[in-house]
Design brief:
3 domains, 6-stranded antiparallel beta sheet, Rossmann fold, 5-stranded parallel beta sheet, elongated, 21 helices, Aminoglycoside 3'-phosphotransferase, Chain: A, domain 2, 15 strands, alpha/beta
């Protein structure tokens, strides 16, 4: 294997004696296309490479110092306590030192070091990353975006011309890799897809500005930049070097996490994260633009891997791995552009019948969008999901509005190619009739999953229910039973009944 060429400063930083504190030997070096990251045990030092890649310019010492300071400031929002200070790396005679009175020749961001097995990417590879982790991440990112700054200047980056600029830049930088990890056919078809989207979906993209969904986001929210440390999920290493990558649609961030999980073969975890995030924010309309950002982020992963092929400091073995990684993600970016056929699935059944449990399991299998009427109702009422609703949100008028919004969202997303599960009682023929009529009129595949269980099971489930957004209690069961209307003969062709007191997985396998 060929030896890598490291700068003298980095070679010195690999020596334990360089540091004024205790060091775990050996000092570990992690390289990216833009940074050297040195892990010393208690602390991490991140040194920026002197590169100008167009979208990023670290070419002068002054710029590297500035962006170190920006990185420190910005990452204290998503990872408080992790980022400590910017330290000068100085020349001392013929050698180098950390701090001191010598001439600064580089700067490093100093961070507390957490165990590498705390990274979501390593938890995934070790089999320790669960749906619960991704659901909690969905809640954390939803709050991060809700609290994120927004201004007229930030919103201006949602203009179509601004979004297009960064996408086109990716294509331009990756042209040289056609015939290598990228194919000419994938390149042309992926670019054709985004060109068409920018031309035909301007109104959808502009609506994201109107609804203030362009925020100061993380910008690089993949699994290697998310950690579970001291029982807290940290979002770190956000983009400090380019406003075009940071002042973005919230779906840009969401797309990075979803793409990363799907690219690693865990679509089920991606679905858990996505559905939790969307339910928390109520931003179901954002799913109209998510495919653009899925494609864009997969392409970025491919491009970044491709750049390693030109780095003299990267070994031949690592370059071969980079080539394979780039090829995988160029293909994934292309796959996201392919047309899909959506469908509608209506859940039906009394409270406690297991509708949401079945819907959740099915969503993971299908990659479906799971929309709960409880969440839609509370977003319409403007109350937090975890707050119990009063009688005013359960009037006939509010129920009508809830089901109208539910069906509106379902049809919109199914038309975009998403499988959509509408999770509500659907206990009235009129409600089902509306859904069937619009699905038939739009030629959308439709099925109704009717969940049943003995009434004593329903009552027990409702008594034991805690920590859920649903407000229904066991004392409502009698009224629900009395008001539920049977399926008509015309409806029966769509209905499949599930006994949720039995093994659900086995029934879904049929």
């Amino acid at each position: 294997m060929a030896e890598t060429c490291l700068p003298r400063l980095i070679e010195r930083m690999l020596q334990p004696g360089f540091y004024p504190h205790q060091v775990r030997v050996p000092v570990e070096l992690i390289q990216t296309h833009i940074s050297f990251v040195l892990l010393t045990g208690d602390y991490v030092y991140k040194v920026k490479k002197p590169v100008n890649l167009g979208f990023l310019d670290y070419s002068t010492l002054g710029k590297r110092q500035y962006f170190c300071e920006r990185e420190l400031q910005m990452n204290r929002l998503g990872a408080p306590g992790l980022y400590l200070e910017v330290v000068p790396l100085t020349r001392a005679g013929d050698g180098f030192g950390l701090g001191g009175e010598g001439e600064p020749v580089e700067y490093a961001v100093k961070m507390r070091q957490f165990p590498q097995d705390s990274l979501f990417v390593n938890m995934l590879e070790g089999g320790g990353l669960t749906e619960k982790h991704l659901e909690e991440l969905g809640r954390v990112v939803a709050k991060f975006h809700t609290d994120a700054p927004v201004s007229e200047w930030i919103l201006s980056f949602g203009e179509v011309s601004q979004i297009r600029k960064t996408v086109e830049q990716n294509y331009e930088l990756s042209k040289k890799y056609i015939g290598g990890p990228q194919t000419g056919e994938q390149f042309e078809e992926t670019k054709r897809y985004t060109d068409k989207l920018f031309a035909e979906r301007r109104e959808v993209l502009l609506s994201r500005i109107e609804n203030q969904r362009i925020r100061e986001c993380h910008g690089d929210l993949h699994l290697s930049n998310i950690a579970l440390w001291e029982d807290e999920i940290l979002l770190f290493d956000c983009i400090e070097f380019n406003e075009y990558f940071r002042f973005v649609d919230v779906m840009y961030d969401v797309g990075f996490t979803v793409m990363d999980l799907q690219g690693r073969g865990r679509g089920d975890l991606a679905n858990a994260f996505l559905n939790t995030y969307i339910e928390c924010t109520g931003d179901w309309e954002g799913l109209q633009v998510l495919p653009l950002y899925l494609t864009r982020q997969a392409y970025v992963r491919a491009k970044v891997s491709s750049l390693l092929l030109d780095d003299a400091g990267v070994s031949a073995e690592d370059k071969e791995k980079a080539h394979q990684t780039a090829a995988h993600y160029y293909r994934l970016a292309w796959q996201y552009t392919q047309p899909r056929t959506g469908e509608l699935i209506l859940m039906s059944g009394l409270s406690g019948s297991g509708k949401s449990t079945v819907a959740r399991k099915l969503a993971r299998r299908l990659g479906a969008i799971h929309i709960r009427s409880d969440a839609v109702r509370k977003h319409l009422a403007g109350i937090p999901l975890n707050q119990r609703g009063g009688e005013d949100i359960y009037t006939s008028e509010m129920t009508q509005k809830t089901y109208h919004r539910l069906l509106q969202l379902g049809v919109m997303l199914a038309a975009e190619g998403w499988p959509v599960i509408l999770d509500a009682k659907y206990d009235r023929q009129a409600l089902r009739r509306d859904a069937i009529a619009i699905a038939e009129g739009r030629h959308l595949p439709l099925q109704i999953l009717h969940c049943t269980a003995p009434v004593e099971v329903l009552r027990d489930r409702l008594h034991r229910r805690t920590g859920d957004i649903a407000d229904a209690t066991a004392d409502l069961l009698a009224a629900q039973q009395a008001g539920a209307e049977p399926f008509t003969e015309a409806e029966q062709v769509y209905v499949r009944t599930l006994d949720t007191a039995q093994d659900i997985e086995a029934q879904l396998d049929l």
